[in-house]
Amino acid sequence: MVDEENDGASGEYVFTNNLIVGHGVWNETNEEFDYTWYHLPLEINPEDGINDVKVAFAPDGMTGWICAMSDRIPALPYTSYHPILFKTTDGGQTWDEEPIEVQLGGDDGLEAVWEFISDEELAAFFDPNPVPPREEIMYYMGYHMDLAVDAWGNPHISGVVAIADPDGSGWYHYEGVFAMFHIWSPDQGETWDAFNLDNLTTFDATWTASSGSTLSQYNRPQVATTNDGAIVFFSWLDTRITGITDNSQPDIFFREYFPTQLIHGEEVVNVTDLSNAMWNARWGCMSYYVFSENTGDEYNCNIPFAYQVMTDDDPGAEVQFMYIPDFDRSYVITNIADNEVESLTSMSQNFPNPCRDFTRININLVKSEDISIKVYNLTGQNVKSFTFRRLGNGPHQLSMDVKDLVSGVYFYTLTAGESEQTRKLIIN
């Protein structure tokens, strides 16, 4: 769990330059999570705040990312609010101290960002002033974003990108100069790429309750994956009705991404077109994991969506939650079946470690494999072996009975197809 720490003593929002991170461990006795809470420092521009913050993990539960949307000092070139990320590889017990920032504009920014607006729209936006070079235009990402992590531990972010004021004080979210983007790293945060999922028509809508309070809805970017993290999915809201200028009558739109093939789906799909949710999918959302079955190189997926039906357009009244049950997609991903990627995408350190009787390992597979674990003493002698037959794709937790091993230090090697990884095992 993650949230921003707000010093509300003054009655106003004041970010304390700390994220609050909770690490939970399941307590089998009381069937609840036991949480440890701590601060993760994040110093930002004191004139700004945190627009959004999310946390997500790979299917193995070990590699995870925190993403906050804000701005720092010194500012990145031609970049206002942008993704700021922290990484963990031990299930959230520790996080990298130095954040990774994703630059949007500028020579070292994302080419897809500074190329997505047409020449005609740029000329109209800057008129009567001349249009600056594309890499010298300021960009902003916000307000909301979503985050998921694929089978290889790589983060995928979705959110609205738009032109910003040169001083970063504001941004322009109207048709022609803003779009829904996918921003991701293919190599654990070393480099970043971007893709324009779709140009948007409307941004927000606000309803007033009978009590006088208001509630606003935005484009609601959502990111999901298959249970093994092999496919990434995106959804968002947009109203595309002639004469409607706000996002008050949205449909849900959808696109996918295939990490092993480095390609996005060819077209944007209107999930709610000609359905009961058409022009009415308010607060539409998609689950983090979709229902998926993998047979060889074929994936059959059911992507769950839900939305809310308001009573008399009053956000203070009761709402009816509606479910879209039949949005099904099928894909063939030949790279996985052809062994162009390793079967074993991640493997945790065994836990507990040190141990005495039993210890466990979390792994993630992108295709079905036989798993073997061989335990060796310090002289290289194979002292114990385990076999797990034909485990399916997705996350698995493997248990090892080690109570017959004497106290000491060992090493174990886990093999899945052509993939091998070795870790240290300590017996009390």
Q: How would you briefly describe this protein structure?
A:
With 428 residues, the chain is mainly beta. The chain contains three helices and 32 strands. The chain has two domains: 336 residues, Neuraminidase, CATH 2.120.10; 84 residues, Immunoglobulin-like, CATH 2.60.40.1930.
Secondary-structure blueprint:
Layout: E1 2-6, E2 15-27, E3 32-41, E4 52-57, E5 64-70, E6 82-88, E7 100-101, H1 111-115, H2 119-126, E8 139-149, E9 155-164, E10 171-172, E11 178-184, E12 193-199, E13 205-208, E14 214-217, E15 222-225, E16 232-238, E17 251-258, E18 263-264, E19 269-270, E20 282-286, E21 291-295, E22 298-302, E23 305-310, E24 319-324, E25 328-332, H3 334-337, E26 344-347, E27 358-365, E28 369-376, E29 382-391, E30 394-401, E31 408-416, E32 419-427
Antiparallel strand pairs: 1-2, 2-3, 4-5, 5-6, 6-7, 8-9, 9-10, 9-11, 11-12, 13-14, 15-16, 16-17, 17-18, 17-19, 20-23, 21-22, 22-25, 23-24, 26-27, 27-30, 28-29, 28-31, 31-32
Description:
There is one protein chain. The mean pLDDT is 92. The chain has 428 residues and is mostly beta strands. It has 3 helices and 32 strands. Helices cover 4% and strands 48% of the residues. It starts with a strand and ends with a strand.
Give the helix/strand class. mainly beta
Q: Distance N terminus to C terminus?
A: 32 Å
Q: Do you know the CATH topology of the largest domain? A: Neuraminidase
Rough outline: globular
CATH architecture of the largest domain: 6 Propeller
Strand content: over 45%
Overall mean pLDDT = 92
Task: Report the major sheet.
Answer: 5 strands, antiparallel
What Rg, in angstroms, do the CA atoms define?
24 Å
CATH class placement of the largest domain: Mainly Beta
Question: Would you report the number of β strands?
Answer: 32
Q: Work out the count of structural domains.
A: 2
- Number of DSSP helices? 3
Low-confidence stretches: none
Percent of residues in helices comes to: under 10%
